[in-house]
Fold YitT family protein.
Amino acid sequence: MNTSSFKNLTRLIEILIGLELIALSVSMFFEPHAIAAGGATGIAILVQELFKLPLAVTLLIFNIFMLILALIFLDRVATAKITFGSFVLPIFLALTPNTMIIKNPLLSDIIGSILFGLGLSMLYRVGSSSGGTTVPPMILNKLFHIRNANSLFAIDGIVCLGNIFVSGFEQFFLALLSVGISTIVLNYIQTGLDKKLVVYIMSETQMEAIKKALDKQIDTGSTVFDVRGGHSNRPKEMLMLVTETQEYRNILNIIYKIDQNAFILTDSVAEVHNGSFY
């Protein structure tokens, strides 16, 4: 198997796992407690509660309708990205047992939300989608330049509100909690699990000593920038290094032992590619 075929196979497996995680979260954690936590699957749960129509059937009909809209308003590339998930997710929902694993609604909601967020992150990482309510935001963005995140938030909010009229206020608040947890999980995974800190250091008199001390005591490389003071207009040096979070306090102690007046600016970074820490 050549490299290209292996990558395609890996991508397909990741998409299938992501879709099944979503199906598991809906069938075993959300639906048994009638929690419609946004999206097309949330709409399917509301329809099932009202009309007893199977989840998979509702979702398939809804996704086909969304695909038709995508073909009309979006380009072929965008439509292709959502086609596979639009048909496979309903199949997985039909095959996944609809069983209440956890009787406590809150615990079930939390676990289901984590699984849902994991599934979405796997799809987004390979440029795929489960279809459904991801289509209207794309259309609104193209026609009216409304941000995808804003319109998707509004759609999820409307679906969550549906819980009040179908299942009650408890399911409404559980649905809101689910959307929040899923979003946090999705964003956290998308921006990297192995977060680092980037530290910028400036010293009026002890820059060279700080640089030598950090090189000697901390297992991380550094970069020196030539900068200019905004007020004094004098040339200065600024040291930048990327480090693990657990090393941060040690770095501060090293710097302040040398120069109590050193300027330090710290920010978190999601991912670091290439380069060297050593």
